[in-house]
Amino acid sequence: MVVGCVGDRCALNLSGDRVSKESIRRGDVAMSPELHAPTARIDARLRLLESESGAGARFNVRLHHGAAEVGARVVLLNAERLLPGGSAEVQLVLDRPIAAAVPDHFVLRDVSAKRTIGGGRFIDLRPPSRRRQTRERALQRTAHGIANPVAAFEALLSTPPFAWDLATFARDRALSKGIIDELLSALRPVVLDSGACRIALGAERWQQLCLQLLAALGGFHVDHPDQQGIGRDALRVSLEPALSAAAFDAALGRLELADVMREGGFLRLKSHRVQLSREDEDVWARIAPLLGGEARFRPPRVRDVAAVLARPEEDTRRILKLASRLGRVDQVAHDHFFLRSTVSEMVSIAATIASRASDGAFIAAQFRDQLSNGRKVAIQILEFFDRHGITHHRGDQRRINQQRLDLFHLPG
């Protein structure tokens, strides 16, 4: 195999249905698909030439990187003006995305591309467009600006938000597997694999997260001893560092969190139990069949259940509310309880209807026809789904939120 090195002149023979002379332009890059993530916003370290008269907080330039040339706007991040020969951290906002890596060199020329005005190195290929001058962002740029990847990632793990995507870091620096293995061996972070992302935390930060989570669940059970548990997303957003839903699920699956039990979209400590009295259990055993079977999509309301059982309506309502806290039923509308298994089934039905539509949208009539339970009840069920984020409602149409489909899944 012939390998081209920096400074070599190479030629490539390209073939394919979409490859033509017109489809290739100066500045294009041949790379592994795993590295393909062009960017149009870059934080960088810029040095202005001494021959320049200085620059204001924002100015337009032509950016040269490799063989690419693109228009860009320069925004100073830690100064109001850049003096001749001075250096500053800047954000480069490009007219179009380019392929780049940290810490690549770049050159800036004036808008006519006739005069070189400065140059520098890229620091971060995925900076935010807002809050870019905060102290937190300054700390992040300092960490990103470290040339050695192991030292840079170690600094990031000690910098807010303390949880970083190792896959993105490796891709943006074009790091080999050998360097990533060296990084993992040296730093020994806790890595949460969640699809395409690999969220890494320092070991100490991970332990703090675990303690936070367990304390939050314990506190919730003390304040709400009669409830099944806390909603997964409500717990996730209350913790630091803030993790994505996928990374949080990966965290819950780790051995260190063996004390946590997942029940659909709810979380509780394994030691927590909400229990009915023996008498209430006996009544529940008579209520449950009334809510299931062929009538499960249009179960009787509290007053009707009470009438069938010849029991006080208030006491029947009390037992159904306790069963709701146990996750056995869900109150879809006032005094209208559905078995949890039925709610899970109805979520699947709605998702199936949406999946058959070319645009992923469906209307209430389609859902009603599948359940054969009348428009009023179908609307109440869909509004219940809306409140819990399972569906997004706009106009006459609804779409499924794939991230919430398991909210009412049954354990196991």
Helix/sheet category: alpha+beta
**What is the CATH top level name of the largest domain?**
Mainly Alpha
Please report which band the strand proportion falls in: under 5%, 5-15%, 15-25%, 25-35%, 35-45% or over 45%.
15-25%
Return the string of H and E elements. Answer: EEEEEEHHEHHEEHEHHEEHHHEEHEHHEE
**Largest sheet composition:** 6 strands, antiparallel, barrel
Strand order of the largest sheet: 1-4-3-2-5-6
Which fold name fills CATH's third level, the topology of the largest domain?
Answer: Arc Repressor Mutant, subunit A
**If you compute it from the alpha carbons, what radius of gyration comes out, rounded to the nearest whole angstrom?**
29 Å
- Secondary structure: number of strands: 17
| Ends apart, CA distance between termini | 52 Å
Number of helices: 13
The CATH architecture name of the largest domain reads: Orthogonal Bundle
The stretches of 5 or more residues where confidence is low (pLDDT under 50) are none
List its salient traits.
single chain; 412 residues; alpha+beta; Elongation Factor Tu (Ef-tu), domain 3; Arc Repressor Mutant, subunit A; 4 domains; 6-stranded antiparallel β-barrel; 3-stranded antiparallel β-sheet; 17 strands; 23% strand; elongated
